[in-house]
Amino acid sequence: MTPYAIGFVLLLVIAGLVGGPLFAAYRRRKARDMPFPAAWREIIDRRVPLARNLPPSLRLQLEARIQVFLLEKNFIGCDDVAITDEMRITIAAQACLLVLNRKSTPYPNLRQILVYPGAFLVDRIRPEPSGILQEERRALSGESWTQGQVVLSWEDTLNDAAIADDGRNVVIHEFAHQLDQEKGYANGAPWLGNRDRYPSWSQVLAYEFAMLQQAAFTGQPSLLNHYGATNPAEFFAVATEVFFEQPQAMAHMHPALYAEFANLYRVDPAQWPRS
Questions:
Q1: Which residues are CB-contacts of 138 (< 8 A; sequence separation ≥ 6)?
Q2: Which among 108, 113, 227, 234 is placed 20 to 30 Å from 10, CA to CA?
Q3: Quick one: pLDDT at residue 1?
Q4: Can you say whether the dihedral through the CA atoms of 66, 117, 79, 144 is positive or negative?
Q5: Residue spans per domain, the chain
Q6: What average pLDDT score do residues 152-160 get?
Q7: What residue intervals traverse the membrane (predicted)?
C-alpha cells in the first residue's frame, strides 16, 4: 500500500472515530429540540402518574430524555405483541425518571427493550445444598441483561405504573439494574459520579441490606419488599422502586438510605406533588 493510500485510510479511521460521537450528539440534540407530540403527552398523563406529577422543569427535562431514548432504543414485541406508541412512551417515561439531571446519555449500553404481553417463562439453573444443579422454570415480569437488553411484561408494566404509591414498579426495578450493570455486572453499586461517595454508600446500604435480611428471615414487615434481601443488586433495585413510589415513607423510616438515593438520582421525589 502506498503512503498516500495509508494516509487516506488513517483519515477515514480518524473521521469515523471523531465523526461517530459528533453525529450521535447532533442526532440527540435534534431529537431534544423537536416539539414533544401532544399524543405522547396524553399517554404520559393517562398511564404514568409519577411523571404526570413532576414539577414543570423536571417534566420538560423528562420529555427531552424520552425523545432521545426513543431515538436510540429499539422496542421488540414478543409472543405476537405489536409495539405501539403507548408501549414505547409508557416504558420510556418511567425509565427516564431514573436519569434526570444528568448530562450523560441515558443507558448508553442498552440497545433493546423486549416486550411480552404478560409474565414470561425463563429457565434457570439452581444449585441444591447437595451440590446438584437443579433446572427450574420461573414466570417473570421483567429482567435486565448486561448484553444491552431489558425484558418486560406489558401487563405488569401497566399495572405497576397505574399504582404509583405501592413501592412496586417493574420498569423502575429493571432500569435500576441497567444502571447497576453499566460496569458489566450488577452488585448494588452503580456509578455515583465520584469515587469519594462510595464509603458512605457502602456503609449505609450494607446496614440497610442486613436489616432487610433480618426482617425477611424473621418474617417482620418492612417498607422494602423482602425480595430485596436476595442480594445487594436486588436490594438496590427494590430500594429504587420505593425511593420513587414511596419517598415520604422512605425519608421518614430510612433517612440515611433516602439521602444516598437522592444524591444518586439527583432528585427529591418526597417534595413532588402527589395525586
A1: 121, 122, 124
A2: 108
A3: 60
A4: positive
A5: 16-123+139-271
A6: 97
A7: 6-26
Q: Which residue has the cell 443507558?
A: 107
Who's near 154: CB < 8 A, 6+ residues apart? Answer: 81, 87, 115, 116, 117, 118
Number of H helices, E strands in the chain: 11, 6
Partners of residue 139 on adjacent β-strands: 121
Closest to 207 measured CA to CA, from 184, 182, 224: 224
* 16-123+139-271 carries CATH number 3.30.565.10: no
Query: Over 50: is that where the pLDDT of 63 sits?
Result: yes
- Max alpha carbon distance in the chain (Å)? 75
- 162: nearest Cα among 41, 64, 275: 275
C-alpha cell at 179: 444502571
Q: At what angle do helices 154-162 and 38-47 cross, to 10 degrees?
A: 70
Tell me the pLDDT tens digit for each residue of 249-273.
999 999 999 999 999 999 999 999 8
d(CA 204, CA 212): 12
The predicted-structure confidence for 169-188, as pLDDT tens digits, reads as follows 999 999 999 999 999 999 99
| 89-120 pLDDT, tens digit each | 999 999 999 999 998 788 999 999 999 999 88
Burial 153-183 (b: 16+ CB within 10 A, else e): bbebbeebbeebeebbbbbbbbbbbbbbbbe
For Cα atoms 88, 228, 255, give the angle at the middle one, nearest 5 degrees.
95
